[in-house]
Amino acid sequence: MNRTVRRLHSLVPACVLLAGLSLASASSAQTTPSPDDLRALRFYIEQDETAAVQAELRRLRMEFPGWTPPADLSELLKTGPTTEIADIYARIARNDLDGARRLLQETQSRYPSWKVPPDLQRQLDLAEGQAALDRAVETRDAAGAVRAASQTPALLRCDRINNAWNLAELQADSGNSNGALAAYRQIVGTCTNVPEIVATIEKAEPVASDAQLSALIDTAKQRFASQAGVFDTLERRLLAGRGRAPQPSTPATKPRTTAPAAAPAPAPAPAPAPAPAPKTRSAPRAAATAEPPRQANTALRSYSPPNLSRLPRSGDGRVSSTRSAAQVGNYRECLARSARPRSLDIAYERAWCAYNQERPLEALAYFSAAAQGGLGATVSRDARFGMALSFLKLDMTDDASQIAASTDLTLKQRREIESIILNQRGVAAYQAGDYRRAIDYFDALEQLDGSLPRDLALLRGYAYLNLKDYVAARDQIMALHNALSTPETRAALKALDESQP
């Protein structure tokens, strides 16, 4: 063996050692094979090539010494969970949140390429937030309750009104009357169930002054003009309990519907299902000068982040990270990244995230600033579109209509706004007893969208019933009942049978 050959042989152990170190380094960085690493093995398993399968397993064990393949190799052919998702939902439903979170983590580990469905993540986050809030309420921990509610804003939505009531009660008990009153004011200004609004005002009475109590009732009367008598009676009763009489106030605003007042027909009908809330939407991506609404709005004035009018158009370096969070639907992270905006462009991004996190008053303030901030015609239009959506989420239909009428919206934007407006006006007309106008609105909504949501179609059937148009009522209700029999359609048919002469 010559000298060159001896030198080459002497280098072999060193090369092997370096390769081993490299492999050890790689394996320490990654302990389990990725979906790409398993691609060849899956192919051999599918082709039933036993020798190739064993060879590939040996290679993977060398590369990933901490990995143990399943006893049944066909398990590797599954690239995503099947029954695990239903099991996670089931655990959430029975309030086994630790088990649901643990199974979710195990599933993610088993299927690294699987993405958690957004609805599943929302359901789990909401359930965990509710559990945290319940614990705070049980232990009378006001700070913990506020923390839980701020971390999961959906807890304070109107369909979970007990949470807001409990939070306000805790704040009142801790001496924070202003905080309690703010919670009650938010309910009265945003929720749509009149009995719940009445109950909220009753709960607010111990922490409100005479003027604050009257202001709450005035807000309710403005939003529910057809129920002004209910709130006048409530005000007289509450102030009488204080030994006072209500002061004369300006008349409540007229009903939002443009239809003339009409006496409700005498045919009895069960209470209608509540109108569905406007859909939560993600921010349209657009790169903002338009005129402000023709009338200043009290809801907009009630939330006013400081110095928005003084913000420069750009310059806040967090815009890209904020926009990235919004684009993947992580609105909580978007709000965290855009806290205290330092420019109008990030205020615009934050507005959409606040809207999608059920914070429409905050969204209105930022949308309004962006619409007037010189960010360009497209952003101005989209910001005004966001203002209209926020007004609709607050059930302020006329304000949204004014914005839409004075803005050159895209066809898609206009159709969405008009659809929600027709929905809300139809329900408002029905609640005001103007059944003919309600039918007209529901017919227009059906023509615009091509179909009518089932709850609104049933409401239309009740409207015909109250007008004593029994043929049309039966046609509408039977069509729904034949498509899907439910307790609601059966109750409607019973009301129809009992109403006919």
Briefly summarize what is shown.
The chain has 501 residues and is mostly helical. It is built from 24 helices and no strands.
Describe the protein.
This protein is mostly helical. Among the domains are: 125-241, Serine Threonine Protein Phosphatase 5, Tetratricopeptide repeat (Alpha Horseshoe); 304-409, Serine Threonine Protein Phosphatase 5, Tetratricopeptide repeat (Alpha Horseshoe); 419-501, Alpha Horseshoe (Serine Threonine Protein Phosphatase 5, Tetratricopeptide repeat), CATH 1.25.40. The chain is built from 24 helices and no strands. The chain has helices at residues 3-29, 39-46, 50-63, 83-93, 97-110, 118-138, 142-151, 161-173, 177-190, 194-204, 210-223, 228-241, 298-302, 319-327, 331-337, 344-356, 360-371, 377-393, 397-405, 411-431, 435-449, 454-466, 470-483, 487-499. It is globular, with a radius of gyration of 30 Å. 33% of the residues are buried.
